[in-house]
Design brief:
The chain has 342 residues and is an alpha/beta fold. Among the domains are: 3-93, 3-Layer(aba) Sandwich (Udp-n-acetylmuramoylalanyl-d-glutamate--2,6- Diaminopimelate Ligase, Chain: A, domain 1); 159-306, 3 Solenoid (UDP N-Acetylglucosamine Acyltransferase, domain 1), CATH 2.160.10. It has three helices and 40 strands. The model has no long low-confidence stretch (mean pLDDT 95).
């Protein structure tokens, strides 16, 4: 497929600086640009590539001004990364879409299946399941009884959804993720553990994406809830009765313990761990490998283990670097004091 630069600019409401008639037939990284390729520049660290890239056109922010001559055509937009993402989404939707139901799938006669769905080989669908229009279930997906999957949602290969869980519209759940396994609930008595039945479910609202090999546990009672527009990376653990707020984003290996409530618009970097029965306010950012043991109010940036306000942790980092020097100084003072006592 070949598209003129001017047509692309029109699609993303951009301004062409250069040859609007140049033809695009692929997308590429700016550092690996090729003739006919379209790339983007969002991170200033990559700016120097724009002066040597072989890409035919590059999407840049509106305020970008070249410091020396360039060969590529520019498409100036308000947000280059977002514009490029929209183009990739448009390109992806133009690919042939899978439809139809495999004769190798096992579907309960009580299940309700919408129109224009794709149900791949060896998919298993339990009793009284509801599959809405446009859903895609890739091979080896398993849906327990009374599960609901909303319109346009995609469950990739090997996703397992336990009984009575509900998944909203336009969600994407990646391979081998498990929705609705039992929460980690045990009552200790005389050194033995008695399992506490987990009779709740998981509710995933609209437009949520969950990465591969993640686990969202069902509630003991009630629901574990992932609110709309939340984005969870690979290898994430969400425990029973947790609530993840609207528009929050978690990077890989985040773990949230039971009954913790996370607010709207939060960002957790990789390997953040949150203790149970806490509350995290809206718009909280937590740095990588931080451990949270106390509740956090809204609009804070936290770092460290235990997590503290970002500026406090920066000071602590400086102090920790000075500990070897301080140790030597104290050791020398102790030696001097001993000599004076003699």
């Amino acid at each position: 497929m070949e598209i003129p630069v001017a047509k692309i600019a029109e699609t993303i409401n951009g301004e062409v600086v250069g040859d609007g008639n140049a033809v695009i037939n692929t997308v590429c990284k700016i550092e690996e640009g090729v003739s006919g390729g379209l790339s983007f520049l969002a991170n200033p660290k990559y700016t120097y590539y724009i002066y040597e890239t072989k890409a035919t056109a590059v999407i840049v922010n509106q305020d970008f001004t070249p410091e020396k001559p360039i060969q590529t055509t520019l498409i100036k937009v308000e947000n280059s990364y977002l514009a490029f993402a929209k183009l990739l989404d448009f390109y992806n939707k133009m690919k042939p879409q899978k439809k139809g139901v495999s004769n190798k799938a096992a579907i309960s006669p009580t299940a309700k299946i919408g129109q224009d769905v794709y149900i791949g080989d060896f998919v298993s669908i339990g009793e009284n399941v509801v599959i809405e229009d446009g859903v895609k279930l890739y091979p080896h997906v398993w849906l327990g009884d009374r599960v609901t999957v909303g319109q346009g949602t995609v469950l990739n290969s090997g996703v397992k959804v336990y009984d009575e869980c509900r998944i909203g519209k336009s969600c994407i759940i990646h391979a081998s993720t498990v929705i609705g396994a039992d929460g980690f609930g045990f009552a200790s008595q005389n050194g033995n553990y008695m399992k506490v039945p987990q009779i709740g479910n998981v509710v995933i609202e609209d437009n949520v994406e969950i990465g591969a090999n993640s686990c969202i546990d069902r509630a003991t009672i009630g629901s574990t809830i992932i609110r709309k527009n939340a984005k969870l990376d690979n290898l994430i653990q969400i425990a029973h009765n947790v609530e993840v707020g609207e528009g929050s984003a978690f990077a890989a290996q985040v773990g949230v313990s039971g009954s913790t409530k996370v607010g709207k618009g939060c960002v957790f970097a990789g390997q953040v761990g949150i203790a149970g029965h806490l509350s995290v306010g809206d718009n909280v950012t937590i740095g990588a490998q931080s451990g949270v043991s106390n509740s956090i109010g809204s609009n804070q940036v936290m770092l460290g283990s235990p997590a503290v306000p970002f500026m406090d942790e920066k000071k602590l980092i400086i102090y920790r670097k000075k500990l070897p020097q301080l140790y030597k100084q104290i050791d020398n003072i102790e030696k001097l004091l001993k000599e004076q006592k003699r």
